[in-house]
Design brief:
- This protein has two domains: about 140 residues, HAD superfamily/HAD-like (Rossmann fold); about 70 residues.
- Strands 5-4-1-6-7-8 form a six-stranded parallel sheet, sandwiched between helices. The chain has a two-stranded antiparallel ribbon with strand order 2-3.
- The chain has nine helices and eight strands.
- The protein is an alpha/beta fold and about 220 residues long.
């Protein structure tokens, strides 16, 4: 029996692409780069803010990442002020969380977004007590697809990997969950498509959040 669900944040719990695009475009604008479309940002994201900026700079033609340090610093400053810009939960997420709570399931968040901003987004959208554990990017903790974050959460919940469902919207998420020994579910409402989730090794793929209840 599954006793807990770990959620990815961006593209799984929160529709945040407008925020990511706004901050990315603002960071690139002084260089005369961009703007990029939301669909492009959906493929820039997923492996931490530093990789987002690397991909955006490469797409703008800075293949040697000459402007990485200044752009990354500018992005982090802009993002601290605008991480909630037009961010909202996906349809069905609030109902899913309520159903999981009513069934006594533990819930957690694991994101490659910086920890402070991860906590801010979660508390703004869902309140302080919605999730049992919230974990973002922190020094000393490897980014996904490393399973380190999953194991840290499992330790806090006092659970085993086989008791866990991991829900995310990218191949990185699927690799993270599978590396930890969890049952992985791909979310089609997020930033990537079915082909990527299948390639990432998803054990199941769903088109609406409430379908997750069939696996817990």
């Amino acid at each position: 029996m599954k006793r807990a669900v770990i959620f990815d944040l961006d593209g799984t719990l929160s529709d945040s692409i407008a925020s990511i695009k706004y901050c990315g475009d603002a960071a690139l604008e002084p260089l005369g780069f961009g703007p990029f479309g939301a669909d492009q940002y959906k493929y820039f994201v997923g492996d931490g803010a530093a990789n987002l900026i690397r991909r955006a700079l490469a797409a703008a033609g800075d293949m040697n990442l000459t402007h990485f340090e200044e752009t990354f610093a500018r992005y982090k400053e802009i993002f601290r002020e605008n991480c909630m810009y037009q961010v909202k939960p996906y349809e069905g997420i609030l109902e899913l969380l309520a159903a999981l709570k009513s069934e006594g399931k533990k819930t957690a968040v694991l994101s490659n977004k910086p920890h402070v901003e991860t906590v801010r987004v979660i508390e703004t959208l869902f309140g302080r007590d919605c999730f049992d554990v919230v974990q973002g990017q922190q020094e000393g903790l490897a980014l996904k697809p490393s399973p380190e974050g999953v194991f840290r959460i499992l330790d806090q919940l006092e659970l085993k990997p086989e008791e866990l469902v991991y829900l995310g919207d990218t191949a990185t998420d699927m690799q993270t969950g599978k590396s930890a020994g969890a049952f992985t579910v791909g979310a089609l409402w997020g930033f990537r498509d079915r082909a990527e989730l299948e390639q990432g090794g998803a054990d199941a793929i769903i088109g609406h959040p409430l379908e997750l209840l069939g696996f817990v």
